[in-house]
Amino acid sequence: MKALIIVDVQNDFMPGGALAVKEGDQIVPIINQVQDKFDFVVATQDWHPADHGSFAANHEGKEIGEFIVLNGVEQILWPIHCVQGSSGAAFHKDLIRDKWKAVFQKGMNPLVDSYSGFFDNNKLGDTGMSKFLKDNGVDEIYICGLTADYCVKFTILDGVLEGFKAHLILDATRAVNINEGDFAKAVIEMENAGAIIGHSSDIE
User: Which residue range or ranges hold the Isochorismatase-like domain (predicted)?
Assistant: First the structure.
């Protein structure tokens, strides 16, 4: 069975948000349309405590975009975003949620960031999404949302490693693009890992 995974379509990643993604809001209508093609839909939600170690503001003298070592892993420092219970952490108001079977929250451990919807960046914390999908007979996943070069990419890479046939819905994602070309590099990395790159119109 195939499932749609909607990654982090939250206010802080929208234009005007704390970690704004250019054109991030433009994918919402596409995701809404594509949900009609799936009987099984889940979502992920960035859900950080205010003291999260990935926030530049929590490291004296450090700036957004700098790198540190956080719990043994190289970590880029972000602006404060998607803090638990905040309006920025809420899903976009126009995102249809009627068909969702579950929401998997991530990034709750202040000592490690969590891009993937499956595991944290240290691969120690498991959201339970893989087991949930497999227990429900899902073997093929289609992934959309934000952002292509971070949370979407790592969700796809982990999905492949977990044995799912993984698809990226290219027109239903956007990238942070800290460096120009990050979007294209991420797509190549996902494809090289075994993901299938397609568009919403390709889904039957």
Answer: 3-189
State the chain's mean pLDDT as an integer.
Answer: 97
Specify the length of the chain in residues: 204
User: Known catalytic residues?
Assistant: 8, 106, 151
* DSSP collapsed to 3 states, 109-171: CCCCCCCCCCECCCCCCECCHHHHHHHCCCCEEEEEEECCCCHHHHHHHHHHHCCCEEEEEEE
What is the C-alpha separation between 192 and 182, in angstroms, rounded?
15
Distance CA(172)–CA(34), nearest Å, equals 9
Predicted model pTM: 0.98
pLDDT, residue 119, reads 98
Count Cα atoms within 13 angstroms, Cβ side, for 158.
26
